[in-house]
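Attaching the record inline, Q. Sequence:
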Amino acid sequence: MSGLLAEGDAATADPGAQTRDIFRKLDVLLTKAGFARADVGDVLVYVTDQEAAAAAMAECRTAFGAKTSITPIKVALAAPGARVEIMTLAERG
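Structure, as predicted:
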């Protein structure tokens, strides 16, 4: 899944809340495609600053555990208020 951002009130919330909202959306999309979080092997976390990176990484570890590769990348995001954007790669073994 590419380029997921938080929506609604979460779009301008703190980075942890943005990340949790992205995971809510991700779960819906994964389910529609016949996948689950356990099928996610790689996560790219685009963040705007160190605070966003720390919060997003903590949420990612809670959501995916230690087996998933999670990489934070500092960027400037185009969406107003966005501090976290997530891209995932899911595949069946």
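The chain has one domain: 4-90. The two ends are 17 Å apart (CA to CA).

More tomorrow.
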